[in-house]
Every structure is written in C-alpha cells, then in structure tokens.
Amino acid sequence: MHLNRQLAALSALLIGAVALAGTAWTRDGSRVVSYACPGGEQFTVEYFDAHVRLRNGAGVFALSGQQVSSGEKYSDGYTVFTVSGNRAMLERPGLPESTCSPARGPSL
User: Fold this and answer.
1) Would you say residue 18 lies in a domain?
2) pTM recorded for the entire structure
3) Number of domains in the chain
4) CB 88 within 8 A of CB 100
5) Rg (Cα) of the chain, in Å, rounded?
6) For residues 82 and 50, what is the distance between their CA atoms, to the nearest angstrom?
7) Which helix (H) or strand (E) holds 27?
8) Residue 3: inside a domain, yes or no?
9) From CA 100, how far away is CA 34, in angstroms rounded?
C-alpha cells in the first residue's frame, strides 16, 4: 500500500514538471525561420523582441541583439548570427562561416 502512494506521488510530480516545462517553450510573440546552408547544415531561429534562440545540431543558443548599421546581428560572445535581406551568416569559433538562406518547405 505504501508503494502505491509513492508511485502516485511520483506520477503527480512528473505530470506537474511536464506541464511546467511545456510553458517554457511557448512561441507567443515570436516567429520561427528555418535556414539551410550550401554545405547541408540546417538550423532554426526563433525571433523575439531583443534576442533570438538559435537551434542546430550542437544545441540551443540564446543570442542578444547587437547594434549594426543595416540588417540584424545577434551574439552571445562566441556565436554570431547576422541577417541582411534574404541572407544569413552564422559564425562560430573553430568552424568556417556559413552563408545561409531561409529554407523552403516545412520548419525543422
């Protein structure tokens, strides 16, 4: 009987944690754009007011907006994402720069 109570409590805790975690990934007030690069790399960028959330095979990166004369630039001090017109540039330490375009078709 004691084990059933523990399982019920654990189940309730897990359900609550999943419900709370689901609220952290809402997309209210943002737009998501998928990008494709000539070398085959793909990533998505979720745009917010003053920052973006870039997702690729290496993880999720929160990049803050930077002042530039034209286009948009975001960085966390290591990863730099720049957008100008229909071109996006992704710069990362130790990797070649990637010049990418919005992907055609469904988002990643």
Assistant:
1) no
2) 0.68
3) 1
4) yes
5) 19
6) 14
7) none
8) no
9) 10
